[in-house]
Design a protein that fits this description.
alpha/beta, Rossmann fold, 2 domains, 8-stranded mixed sheet, 6-stranded mixed sheet, 16 helices, 20 strands, elongated, cytidine kinase activity, GTP-binding, ATP-binding
Length: 476
């Protein structure tokens, strides 16, 4: 699999990964909504700070020496001109050499994780993420020491780009990132660039550069840098020369920044962690020329992801089991009191995914009739008789104006379901719908796979999916 990824000629888009910290945060049966929100902070959708200021979006850029990381970062910064962006280099956090180490500098491994003061990096990044300005150390590569009286002041920003050869190595650093990019460049090209850089910019001779590369750089790349590629959300072959990949990444970042900001306003809104695999499926189902079977197939895949993410917000209880090896495994038990409610008819497209995830789950129905441009009338509903005792997953693939959702939520609450026990699952959402629902029901959770631009004059989500029910059931 690694060989296939390396041989790719275009940007590689990785699949989903579940951060293990999110599971541990939900183990306790006393998990509260605020703890759930904190758990999802690792995905980049943190709740707003107490003072109401915004948390920045953090992008990690990793790759081998001279792979073009800085070039990629500069190109991203140039295209994000409408945001405040700062660049933090891992190289700034090299540990200064002692006099004894300086005398034997040829034997010092600058490419090993221990060469960096990761604790200080974490402190600086923590302050930047909390909206504080920091003083970043300045490292003298000729003398291998920090400039004790010089610092680079970095102010608060909308986007923080952290780049370095080992920024993916330490999980604590990875957990700070909302998006991870690996710059993958041919080894011969990287070596040639390093020779030119170290001789011209750092005053070293070719012989010492080659000796250092063979003794330390290449072994460290194989041992630490290359294995960290598996953590990347996006892999860019050819570095800064791959303009297509960088343009796609910038478009993706713009989309995520819009979602990111809305999720800060409403900590009860959760967007499925987006990769280009998910973006690719959205591209397919939004294409007006896609066939109905393909639309159903990729919609079902995305709906399954939304359902799984929504289930992750339900309370769990601890449970011990004995494995076939005779060992004890401490795990969790699923929430038992659960049901789904679909808003007919497009919401019925989400029922199969819910049944596939929750065996034997009860599913209720709510039917509204549209009145004019913006009104809804309840026509029919059939709900489990004990719904007041259950957690409810409300299903509707498109959240537009929010009117249908609000009326469905009000009906559920009249039936005795507490607001905090309702999780609204939707494929795409308009900001207007999110505002409408969250302002009225701040304790309800919304889980969606993408937040679109808004509504047009006809109250249709833009860019949207069209009439979802007709497209899914083939009745258009």
């Amino acid at each position: 699999m690694e060989d296939v990824m390396v041989s790719s000629v275009g940007p590689h888009f990785s699949g989903l990964r579940l951060d293990s910290r999110r599971l541990s945060s939900s183990l306790s049966p006393s998990s509260s909504p605020s703890r759930s929100a904190n758990a999802d902070a690792s995905l980049g959708f943190a709740s707003p700070k107490a003072d109401g200021t915004r948390r920045p979006f953090v992008i990690g850029v990793c790759g081998g020496t001279a792979s073009g990381k800085t070039t990629v970062c500069d190109m991203i910064i140039q295209q994000l001109h409408d945001h405040r962006v700062v660049l933090v280099n891992q190289d700034s956090f090299y540990r200064g050499l002692t006099e004894e180490q300086s005398e034997q500098v040829q034997d010092y491994n600058f490419d090993h994780p221990d060469a960096f003061d990761t604790d200080q990096l974490l402190v600086c990044m923590g302050k930047l993420k909390s909206g504080q300005s920091v003083n970043i150390p300045i490292y003298d590569f000729k003398n291998h020491r920090r400039c004790s009286e010089k610092f680079r002041k970095v102010n608060e920003s909308d986007v923080i780009i952290l780049e370095g050869i080992l920024v993916f190595h330490d999980q604590r650093v990875r957990d700070l990132m909302d998006m991870k990019i690996f710059v993958d460049t041919d080894a011969d090209i990287r070596l040639a660039r390093r020779i030119r850089r170290d001789t011209v910019e750092r005053g070293r001779d070719v012989t010492s550069v080659l000796e250092q590369y063979v003794r330390f750089v290449k072994p460290a790349f194989d041992a630490f840098v290359l294995p960290s590629k598996k953590y990347a959300d996006v892999i860019i072959p050819k570095g800064g020369d791959n303009h297509v990949a960088i343009d796609l990444i910038v478009q993706h970042i713009h989309t995520k920044l819009g979602q990111h900001n809305l999720c800060k306003v409403y900590p009860n809104v959760f967007v499925v962690h987006t990769t280009f695999q998910i973006r690719g499926m959205h591209t397919l189902i939004r294409d007006k020329n896609i066939t109905t079977p393909d639309f159903v197939f990729y919609s079902d895949r995305l709906i399954r992801l939304v359902v799984e993410h929504g289930l992750g917000h339900l309370p769990f209880t601890e449970k011990q089991v004995v494995t076939p090896t005779g060992s004890v495994y401490m795990g969790v038990d699923f929430c038992k009191k659960l049901c789904g409610v679909s808003i007919v008819r497009s919401g019925e497209s989400m029922e199969n995914a819910l049944r596939a995830c929750c065996k034997g789950i009860k599913i209720g129905k709510i039917l509204f009739h549209r009145i004019g441009d913006n009104g809804q009338q309840l026509i029919y509903h059939k709900l489990p008789v004990d719904i007041a005792e259950r957690h409810v997953l409300l299903l509707d693939p498109v959240l537009g104006t929010g009117n249908s959702a609000n009326q469905a939520i009000e009906l559920l609450m009249r039936k005795g379901v507490p607001e905090q026990r309702i999780i609204f699952l939707t494929l795409i959402s308009a900001p207007e719908g999110i505002h409408c629902v969250c302002k009225r029901f701040p304790d309800l959770k919304i889980v969606t796979s993408e937040i679109d631009s808004g509504l047009n004059d006809e109250y249709r989500v833009i860019p949207g999916l069209g009439e979802y029910g007709d497209r899914y059931f083939g009745t258009d």
